[in-house]
Amino acid sequence: MYKNESLVGEAIAECISEGVITREEIFIFGSFRLTSKLHSNFHDPDLIIAVIKHQLNLLKLNYLDLYLIHAPWGTVSTDNASFSVDNIYENGFPVIKDFDHMLIWRELEKAVDQGLVRRIGLSNFDELQVDKINSVFNLLYVFLYYVKDRVDSKSKSTCILNDFYSTNCQF
């Protein structure tokens, strides 16, 4: 998603082959933009499994520990065949395309069933969107003047784990 997966994959493979770590000792998610997410360009349910396999190939891994739907909105890729994360723009804005979140979620559940992904979750979803999907994880954008109290309180009652990024408004 961040165009660094092949470099990350090479580093992981090298560390594993040199005995520095084992695959079981690392959790592929989160820090330093090492997250593999379902990019907004690939919300079409027919593409999801292929996208995950492509990312696994780049990362030189058999499975991901956690896989997130990056955002609730879909965008249009310049080239789905090459899994391009570059968007088509109109009037200076990415073209938005809506997809049914439940269809996306069901495809991710298939990825879990196939052993491609161990856990699935959401990123940048609000309370109403989270209610529609039985997620176990929601990565949220939070900063000083934009606190997600309602989502956090909802999470406590439903056992959803929240993680926050960019708390200093820095990316």
Key phrases:
171 residues; alpha/beta; TIM Barrel; five-stranded parallel sheet; two-stranded antiparallel ribbon; 5 helices; 9 strands; 19% strand; globular; disordered C terminus; oxidoreductase activity; Aldo/ket_reductase_CS; NAD(P)_OxRdtase_dom_sf; NADP-dependent oxidoreductase domain-containing protein
Plain-language structure description:
The protein is α/β, with parallel strands linked by helices and 171 residues long. It has a single domain (5-165), classed as TIM Barrel (Alpha-Beta Barrel), CATH 3.20.20.100. Helix content is 32%, strand content 19%. It has 5 helices and 9 strands. It has helices spanning 5-17, 48-59, 101-113, 127-132, 149-158, and strands spanning 37-38, 64-69, 74-75, 89-90, 93-94, 96-97, 117-123, 137-141, 161-165. A 5-stranded parallel beta sheet has the order 1-2-7-8-9, covered by helices on one side. A two-stranded antiparallel sheet has the order 3-6. Helix 2 links the parallel strand 1 and strand 2. It is globular, with a radius of gyration of 16 Å. It starts with a helix and ends in a 6-residue tail after the last strand. The model is unreliable at 30-34, 153-159 and 167-171 (pLDDT under 50).
Average pLDDT taken over every residue: 77
Tell me the CATH architecture: Alpha-Beta Barrel
Structural class computed from helices and strand pairing: alpha/beta
- What is the CATH domain class? Alpha Beta
Strand order of the largest sheet: 1-2-7-8-9
Q: What is the molecular shape? A: globular
Topology overview:
Elements (H helix, E strand, L loop, with lengths): L4 H13 L19 E2 L9 H12 L4 E6 L4 E2 L13 E2 L2 E2 L1 E2 L3 H13 L3 E7 L3 H6 L4 E5 L7 H10 L2 E5 L6
Parallel strand pairs: 1-2, 2-7, 7-8, 8-9
Antiparallel strand pairs: 3-6, 4-5
Helix pairs in contact: 1-2
